Amino acid sequence: MASPFWWHQLNALASPRFAFYEMTMTENVLFSPSADRLDIAVLVLPHCSILEVASLLDPLRAANRHLGREAFRFRIVTPDGRPAPLTCGIELPSSGPLPQAQGAALLMVVAGYRLAEVTTRPLIRDLRRMAPRFGAIGGVDAAPWVLARAGLLDGHRATVHWEDLEDLAHAHPQITVSPARFVVDRTRLTAAGAAPAYDLMLHLIRARHGAGVARQVAQSFLHPPRPGDAPQLGATALPPRPEPGQDPRVARVLARMEATLDAPDSMANLAAEVGLSARRLESLFRAELGTTPGAHALGLRLAAARRMLTDTPHSMAEIALRCGFSSPATLSRAFRRAFACAPASLRRPRA
């Protein structure tokens, strides 16, 4: 079985379903120089992050400010027109249900958690029916799953959050899945999360109004843009960058742990890889992270298992295998010790 944590083998994946492109944009009229106002509707699904919504809207708001006019007009819609509950605990007001998006040139869908609950049949039906009315449709974070289920990404390149890359590719082989931060393929736009959505909006601003305006917007947020073809953090094969004051050897071991959740290395092998003894590596971990390498690695694997339990339909046996446990029973014992509950208790009833 292919591992979901395959980014450490990126160069070995030559399947057309896993394609990494230096150029993540093909021709799209919305990304042409224009002084015309661009109307954008943002469909916010319940249980997504406010940061993802802000990453779409605030760069456009800042561009309007720097241009001194309304170059971008945007509105929020929700599936039923009611305020959308977000992961931070607040509700985001809506201009109305999805049909209120009609008239916009671009529809961006934002989704996060509990997809089985929020991706309803009426929503899929409405997306399919309304798709031809927009010049382009995009999805942020988990929203490419929603677009894929509606058949709106068939025959296109697309990306999704790195935790879901392999699952999306296996579930929808008619989509060419890329580990890029964002992808623009004709009339389809996909961004892997909040920061890539910000990068995508800066890309749109630059294409329509020039590099100078995009630079001003980036300076407003003190956050320079990254290109769409840059790998996502979890998918990068580049050497890890240590945090300020962090021993680079610890950074390398942390990156190795994150890249091998399904087949964890022994502490002796990890230490030898960075030229340390196991005892010295443990000493560095205790000094910098307040824990041991073994405990940290186990925490990463259990966190991945918890995410799969809540966000995927994978069986316990598959989750155990993907997270480096020898059996579901082994995973269950470790899970109970860490979280004081059985793994099955995290399963949500699925629509």
Short key terms for the protein model shown above:
alpha/beta, six-stranded mixed β-sheet, two-stranded antiparallel ribbon, 13 helices
Could you walk me through the main structural features you see in this protein, from its secondary elements to its overall organization?
The chain is α/β, with parallel strands linked by helices and 351 residues long. It contains 13 helices and ten strands. The strands form three sheets. The protein has a six-stranded mixed sheet, sandwiched between helices.
Distance between the termini: 27 Å
What is the overall number of helices? Answer: 13
Instruction: Give the overall silhouette.
Output: globular
Give the low-confidence spans. 1-23, 234-239
Helix content: 40-55%
The helix/strand class is alpha/beta
Number of extended strands: 10
Overall average pLDDT: 86
Tell me the major beta sheet: 6 strands, mixed
What share of residues are in beta strands? 5-15%
Radius of gyration: 21 Å
Strand order of the largest sheet: 2-1-5-6-10-9
Order of helices and strands: EHEEEEHHEHEHEEEHHHHHHHH
How is the secondary structure organized here?
Layout: E1 38-44, H1 50-67, E2 72-77, E3 84-85, E4 91-92, E5 106-111, H2 115-118, H3 121-130, E6 136-141, H4 143-149, E7 157-158, H5 165-171, E8 176-177, E9 182-185, E10 188-191, H6 194-209, H7 211-220, H8 248-259, H9 267-273, H10 278-289, H11 293-311, H12 316-322, H13 328-339
Parallel strand pairs: 1-2, 1-5, 5-6, 6-10, 7-8
Antiparallel strand pairs: 3-4, 9-10
Helix pairs in contact: 1-6, 1-7, 6-7
